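Long-time lurker. I teach an intro course on protein structure, and each term I like to show students one example going from raw sequence to a predicted 3D structure in token notation. This year I'd like something fresh instead of my usual example. Would anyone be willing to generate the tokens for the chain below so I can use it in lecture? Attribution to the forum is fine with me.
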Amino acid sequence: MNFQQLRSVRETVRCGFNLTEVANALHTSQPGVSRQIRELEEELGIELFVRAGKRLTGLTDPGEHVLPIIERILLDSANLRKAGQEFVAQQNGQLSIAATHSQARYALPAAVQEFRQQFPNVKLNLHQGSPRQVAEMLLSGEADVGIATEALAQYEALVALPCYRWTHSVLVPPGHPLLDAPLTLERLAAWPLITYDNGFTGRTHIDEAFTQRKLNPHIVLSAMDADVIKTYVELGMGAGIVASIAYEAERDTGLRAIDAGHLFGINLTRLAVRRGSYLRGYVYAFIESFAPTLNRAIVEKALQDESGGSADYEI
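-- Reply from a regular --
Happy to contribute to a lecture. Here you go:
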């Protein structure tokens, strides 16, 4: 048994049983992948995949049972390499962060700047995507740390810890009628609205608030990025609903912000790592820089928690 056999099985599942894609991912040939899988099956004495002719179409029952074990072995192998690297070069390495557009644009810059000053020899990779894509990058090992408002707490394989609470604001051009009286859902629903795509930056709370009041808002445009939303609000296409952190009075001189925390409630941004991962010292330093409440002791305790899911820590 060898690691290449285990990687071949794992990548086959990840690539939807397409052996051509598996071969590309592992930088080998399709016959080579088939041979690795067959040799592992022969050694284990079971068939891992359902076959239709020469094609693989799914996992057998034994394959479903064995796959999590293979994932753990490969994760422990990666952790072993990281542990060795920790002691060889404690101030060098690579940190990959996955975050939504809003987090990358508004919440991360100060922490990234502080981290670069503290660890100038660590290479930073910043990936952006939807909350679900952030989770998938963590699960695949593409990212070490993930930051998003929605979705991260829904994965048992992730440890998702609370970072900070925030609310929404309604953005309108100067002189807009919504500035003339207290903001209500009824007044807001009377205007065309521009806000986040489904699954982004507290959109769930926005939809729930209107639904509870039996209101049907006219959302004329949705986007992943608050800067895009602000652009179209300035063009007069509608009122924008964005995270309060996305409004910067010094830069957004063509807009006015109205606090909407009383309408859409409080949102919680979480930071997640993959359960069972080995985190190098500088990863803990970055996490604490981004969320000072998440010191190394708290993160280590959460990683050691065997209950599954995300621990409920107060902030």
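Some talking points for your students: The longest strand covers residues 158-166. Residues 52 and 283 are 45 Å apart (CA to CA).
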